[in-house]
Amino acid sequence: MIGGGVVGTVLANLLSLREIEVTLIDSGAQRPRYPLIHSKLLRFKEDIELAKVSEGVYRELSSQLRIDLMHSIRSITIVPQECYRDEVSSIIGMWREAGVRVSIIDEASDYGLRKVGNDEVYIISDGGDHLVDIPALMRLSRNSKYIHYVDGEAHIKFNGRDINVVVNGDNYTGDYVILTTGAWNSIMVSELGIRVPLLQYKCQAVAVLGKAVNNIVYDYVLGIYARPLGSSIDSLLGRLGLSVIVGGDGNVRVEKPGSSKGVDEDVINDVISRLRLRFGLLIRVGSGFGYCEGTPDMRPLVGSLIEDKLYIIGGFNGYGAEVGPALALALVEYILGGSWPNYAKPYLIDRFSGGWPSTWDVDQEAHELCVGR
Ligand SMILES: Cc1cc2nc3c(=O)[nH]c(=O)nc-3n(C[C@H](O)[C@H](O)[C@H](O)COP(=O)(O)OP(=O)(O)OC[C@H]3O[C@@H](n4cnc5c(N)ncnc54)[C@H](O)[C@@H]3O)c2cc1C
Question: How many Å lie between the centroid of ligand 1 and the Cα of residue 112?
Answer without folding.
Answer: 31
